[in-house]
């Protein structure tokens, strides 16, 4: 059954419709921190301990009472405290404790004087710069207080999250189970890399690229391989996927060619929510449901498959995984170095190169923008976004760019 929709949906409308129709995982599992990178937290995590667990020194120096820190007065050093010491006597009045970074503050002390502001004479010290009370002390619970929510539900765990959890003494975390994603490509002309290329064939590359795009999302991938342009073969694979995966991503067969059967098969097995999006590259994008399996049909042209996976498939996966809010690409403003002329009607993501300038960025679109030219992606470091209603962008005008990365190379290019 097909749902009546306008001929083309805008990119924003397509994304919103897809997200609204996407379910959210309910199954959870508890995994070791070492296995939790990029997984999604299934519940909020409260701090079981204070960080730091006790007042401690922020640097190497001398702990004392601020009231005893008179300039040019000899203060005897009565003890030494190392990080890890557990049996520490109370600091006697009028004395100081030699203390190391991270060491517990002895009872009675309320200040640490950094060693650069002290002269040591045998067993005595002379303070050369007056300290402030509580200076250079990390107070108990200053970073995290017992019971605080340290990580919210629906958070994708990164390296910093894992370090924070480890600092709480935790070695496991409860996350949503992995999303099961199936990949298939269609086309009689496609051939697996690593085999001699037959006449009339091309090497299939989309599964390799899509798997790489999905890798940071920590999904479990089932590869259904290359499916011939045969309706019965498509039905068999798509029915099988309904019982095995949460989401099926298909590449190819969603356009209007005589051998493009994917949309027809999807209609027979479930619902087509929408088909065709006003985006370039990537217009023939299909979204629907087969029983409880979400279906995303990306175009067969490599650049179109790559771009629509980033723009439409990734947000669907993030919603399905239980991420609290789908991520948004970083958008910057850059000055065009050359004019852009094109036919308006679709939001276009031109492959481009951006360079830093004094106080800003410049961007130059690459000359070849065909959806079959994958080298345009490898040569680029950003997308130049041309709004749907715009047909002309003048050289020197501002434009929106989406960087591929946020790190600068030695050459100054993202």
Automatic annotation (TrEMBL):
Species assigned in the record: Alteromonas salexigens
UniProt KW Amino-acid biosynthesis keyword: no
Enzyme class, spelled out: transferase
The protein's name in its UniProt record: Molybdopterin molybdenumtransferase
PANTHER family: GEPHYRIN, MOLYBDOPTERIN BIOSYNTHESIS PROTEIN
PROSITE patterns in the record: MOCF_BIOSYNTHESIS_2
Co-factor requirement: Mg(2+)
Pathway info: Cofactor biosynthesis; molybdopterin biosynthesis
Entry keyword annotation includes Metal-binding: yes
Stated family: Belongs to the MoeA family.
Assigned EC number: 2.10.1.1
Catalytic reactions on record: adenylyl-molybdopterin + molybdate = Mo-molybdopterin + AMP + H(+)
InterPro entries linked: MoaB/Mog-like_dom_sf, MoaB/Mog_dom, MoCF_biosynth_CS, MoeA-like, MoeA_C_domain_IV, MoeA_C_domain_IV_sf, MoeA_linker/N, MoeA_linker/N_sf
Domain spans labelled MoaB/Mog: 182-319
Entries under Pfam families matching the protein: MoCF_biosynth (PF00994), MoeA_C (PF03454), MoeA_N (PF03453)
Function: Catalyzes the insertion of molybdate into adenylated molybdopterin with the concomitant release of AMP.
Keywords: Magnesium, Metal-binding, Molybdenum, Molybdenum cofactor biosynthesis, Transferase
